[in-house]
From TrEMBL:
It comes from the Eukaryota. GO terms for cellular component: cytoplasm. GO terms for biological process: isoprenoid biosynthetic process. It comes from Olea europaea subsp. europaea. Pathway: Isoprenoid biosynthesis. InterPro entries: Isoprenoid_synthase_dom_sf, Polyprenyl_synt, Polyprenyl_synt_CS. GO terms for molecular function: metal ion binding; prenyltransferase activity. Belongs to the FPP/GGPP synthase family. Its cofactor is Mg(2+). Keywords: Magnesium, Metal-binding, Transferase. This is Heterodimeric geranylgeranyl pyrophosphate synthase small subunit, chloroplastic-like.
Amino acid sequence: MVFSTVITSSPQLHFPKTSFPIIQRAIRTCSASLSTTPQRISTSQFDLKTYWTTLIQEINHKLDEAIPVQYPQQIYEAMRYSVLAKGAKRSPPVMCVAACELFGGNRLAAFPTACALEMVHAASLIHDDLPCMDDDPSRRGQPSNHTMFGVDMAILAGDALFPLGFRHIVSHTPTDLVPQTRLLKVIAEIARAVGSTGMAAGQFLDLEGGLNGVDFVQEKKYGEMGECSAVCGGLLAGASDEEIQRLRRYGRAVGVLYQVVNDMLEVKTDKEINDKKKNKSKSYVAAYGVDKAMEVAEDLRAQAKKELDGLEEYGEKVVPLYSFVDYAADRGFSVGDCAEEKSFGGLFRKKIFLDRAT
């Protein structure tokens, strides 16, 4: 999930609208063509680039204030290295703010939780990259935390970020905007998402090796963060139980969708599929191939938008959440010097993927 400060347009790949459940998803024969389908609420006039980058600037400033360097200095430097990393898209906090504003919440009420979500997200990435986990020496084009500071310091930095996030919510959320009962629900939601039945469970099964349980790993390891981010925004604004459930299903679908598309974009040759983290990382591409992974992405996109269709009474306020779905699938705008490389259009033109017209 890589972002930088420069945004450029990129070609888009459009998935047809289908409807299949996320849980226990059936893999079907890949269709030969891809087409665009109309949406009930048009997002064509919504500028997601401006919306997202404006929020990124605000969130970056607040994160910088939230983690000042103090004693022990090296732990805080390691924490800041990952949380304030250049290129971070801030997807969890942006989704949280958008969901809060959808239901009439004040952006100021969402910022502390949004920052906490980014802290928790950064902590999970630090731990995922460790040699005993996914063993990734780099993250977002830069050395991983443990590569820079050592395994011991990376573990401490991740351990420190989790509770700091909870503390930040409690100490910085305006009590005149958010009742304490809502804050308790938000804290419980984040704890659930990162705990033994959430992201930790996904990482456990991922470590087991093999390609069994792909759905579970994808939903727990990647879907939980999207689900939690959307739900927290709704909770802060006082959304109804039914609306929270819609946000839950929506966020989970978007989180998995982003990762499925990411896996497809990272595939360059059949050899790379076999060699990259062989028998360790469970993905739809590794399990079923690019074509069938694309079918999964179609299903996820359709389900995410179906959940938002049920919130059409809020009119244009729901447009940012619709736009996130399209971005996750199409990478409708890309950021950084390699925008062309990180779009489906670029990959097709370089013939990295198989010709799907046959």
